[in-house]
Amino acid sequence: EPEEGKWRFDGYRDIEQFIKIVKDAGMYLVLRIGPYVNAERDNGGFPNWLSQYDCKVRVNDAVYMEKVLLYYNKIISIIKQYTVKNNGPLIIVQYENEVLWQESMPALLELRKHIASKIDDVILIESGLYHQGELTMADGKHIYHNTELWTGWLYRWGENILPAQLGVNTVSKMFEGLARGVDGFNYFSTRVTRPL
């Protein structure tokens, strides 16, 4: 929604085509829908127009929540047909990213409740500042996850890239997690950006 009320799902924004590609490749999908995704995006993925409103983001602010729920309804109307129950690849929806503030908890609970009321056959997660968490399933089983385990940060073209020891440490963390019962990882390789 680069302009308020003008939804665009064309070109690189075509989420439905992306989901079909994932399915055709025989993979499962963990979809990070936001509203805040970070991913080194401008405004963490929030549209620029949101700044015109007198609201506080990522908390239970009435204006902010109204805008987020409109966005969720639009996204969910597209993705709900692609859950595993519907023979699609979607198994997990991540609805917030890198949130650590205690004041965000009421908003997180509201967002989770809203999504669960619209799409009930996916696992819902949010990711804390260190991208790890614990889910308690309906049967009482605990599922531990880490949504981002990476070897380094953003590097610029021509800079020295991570030392080998950093890669070894990352792999060690993965094995430590498995020994503790971590059930899932999303491994980030080193990202390199070119100068403009």
Major sheet details:
3 strands, parallel
Low-confidence stretches: 189-196
- Average pLDDT score: 79
Overall form: globular
Strand/helix succession: HEHEHEEEEHEE
Tell me the span between the first and last alpha carbons: 26 Å
Secondary structure tally, helices:
4
Structural class: alpha/beta
The percent of residues in helical segments reads 25-40%
Query: Which assembly state applies to the chains in this document?
Result: single chain
SS elements, strand count: 8
Determine the strand fraction and express it as a percent band.
15-25%
Radius of gyration: 18 Å
- Across the major sheet, the strand order is 1-2-3
Protein traits:
196 residues, alpha/beta, three-stranded parallel beta sheet, 4 helices, 30% helix, 19% strand, globular, disordered C terminus
Give a brief outline of the structure:
This protein is an alpha/beta fold. The chain has helices at 15-24, 62-79, 105-118, 164-180; strands at residues 29-32, 90-94, 123-125, 132-136, 142-150, 155-156, 182-188, 192-193.
Can you describe what's shown?
The chain is an alpha/beta fold. It contains four helices and eight strands. Strands 1-2-3 form a three-stranded parallel β-sheet, with helices on one face.
